[in-house]
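Following up on my earlier thread - several people asked me to post the actual chain instead of describing it. Fair enough. Here it is, all 79 residues.
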Amino acid sequence: MGHPLTPDLTILTTDELTKKYGDLLSRITYAYRIGQADMVAQLQLIMEDYQNEINIRNAKTLAEMEKNSKNFKNIIDIQ
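Reply from S.P.:
Thanks for posting it. Predicted structure:
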């Protein structure tokens, strides 16, 4: 569950999402500088929502690339 004031991130394009994430990063930097710990905590929660959406989109892109590429087939993945 994310921050209650986070908008629906699924309707944003990837470019809009990364731009807004960058804006939040600059806001959190400013909040650190002026000593607003409560604001920093709230912005961190919102940034987690944005980062989770970015991670979901990246995972989908990687899965599509693996599905459509011959280079990923029959690779032994040792973790």
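Residues 37-68 form the longest helix (32 residues). That should answer part of your original question.
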